[in-house]
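for the recovery benchmark. tokens below, seq after
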């Protein structure tokens, strides 16, 4: 949370992506969906299965902890509407594998040179200065 953004103005980085109250970041998690027809698990609150097209899909909670499946380090300021830290700081982007069987693309917090494949990371919601709530996976303690 920031001191300058009224709580009512927080919004998720993508609709249907998060569960919990955006004005209570500790309560925020990732929404997931599972298909009864084929078992596919997907990120976000979905009404159709992208694997088989079934509409027999139900919401599930996704775990807060996962493991870095792979990652890269962004060492130069991305072009366009970059909304990260100013001044720019290198950061890691990981594919985080969750126990539910899907992988999530997200920044990995902490020292980007300390990130390793297989390390355990934990979902952390954060509010940007523009009121958008996004998330990072931080190394688990
Ligand atoms: Zn399906």
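predicted aa per position
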């Amino acid at each position: 949370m920031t001191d300058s953004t009224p709580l009512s103005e927080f919004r998720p980085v993508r609709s249907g992506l998060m569960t919990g109250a955006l004005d209570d970041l500790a309560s925020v998690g990732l929404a997931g969906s599972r298909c009864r027809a084929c078992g596919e698990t997907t990120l976000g609150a979905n009404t159709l299965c992208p694997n088989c097209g079934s509409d027999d899909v139900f919401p599930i909670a996704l775990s807060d902890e996962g493991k870095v499946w792979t990652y890269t380090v962004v060492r130069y300021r991305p072009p366009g509407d970059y909304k990260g830290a100013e001044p720019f700081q290198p950061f890691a982007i990981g594919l985080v594998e969750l126990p539910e069987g899907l992988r999530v693309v997200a920044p990995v917090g902490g020292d980007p040179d300390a990130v390793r494949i297989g390390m355990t990371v934990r979902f952390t919601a954060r509010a940007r200065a523009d009121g958008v709530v996004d998330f990072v996976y931080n190394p688990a303690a």
